[in-house]
Amino acid sequence: MARARAALSELKDNWQNHWPQACDKAGELVAALYRLQEYFAELDGAVFARFSLQPAEFEVLATLRSVGGEHCLSPTELYRLMLVSSGGMTKILLRMEDKALISRPANPDDGRSKRVKLTDKGLALVESCNQALLAAEAQSCASLGRHLPALSRQLQDWLGKLEKR
């Protein structure tokens, strides 16, 4: 059984009472963002498991789905566009090819390499999984109510500024 993690409020109380220099408002925000990332990684992982997918496999499928056209990229293009880093990309792609979620057609521009292409089975799976994922995430964000669009925009603007550094 997993051990329960201390709530962020408990951590903040400890910092304020025993080490006030350890954390300021920016540090509290970053700590909250780390916890939110952990929460959503666990939530998303549970959804992926219902579809027999690993998180990296979903990212590959979602990235291929998002490019349109033939849903086909080189492995380098795929990695560059993914939302998460992907250690062991070759191993992931082999596993997905074995599941018939992707195919590996020859690259017409470079006979030494293969592209990564979404199959019909992979397309159907990523679309079903994404619907379930959006529903789970929407439920988790429901308490933000009317503040959700503004918060989302603020966080995206902030991330954009950080990415330009």
What Rg is obtained from the alpha carbons, in whole angstroms?
20 Å
Order of helices and strands, N to C? HHHEHHEEEEHH
Mean pLDDT: 93
**Total beta strand runs:** 5
- Distance between the terminal alpha carbons, to the nearest Å? 42 Å
**Overall outline:** elongated
Multimerization status: single chain
**What proportion of the residues is helical, as a percent range?**
55-70%
Helix/strand/pairing category: mainly alpha
Beta-strand content: 5-15%
Major beta-sheet overview: 3 strands, antiparallel
Q: Helical region count?
A: 7
Write structural notes for this entry.
- The protein has 165 residues and is mainly alpha-helical.
- 63% of the residues lie in helices and 8% in strands.
- It has helices at residues 8-18, 25-50, 55-66, 75-81, 89-98, 120-141, 148-163; strands at residues 72-73, 102-103, 106-107, 110-114, 116-118.
- The strands form two sheets. Strands 1-5-2 form a three-stranded antiparallel β-sheet.
Quick summary of this structure?
The chain has 165 residues and is mostly helical.
Itemize the secondary structure elements and their pairings:
Layout: H1 8-18, H2 25-50, H3 55-66, E1 72-73, H4 75-81, H5 89-98, E2 102-103, E3 106-107, E4 110-114, E5 116-118, H6 120-141, H7 148-163
Antiparallel strand pairs: 1-5, 2-5, 3-4
Helix pairs in contact: 2-6, 3-6
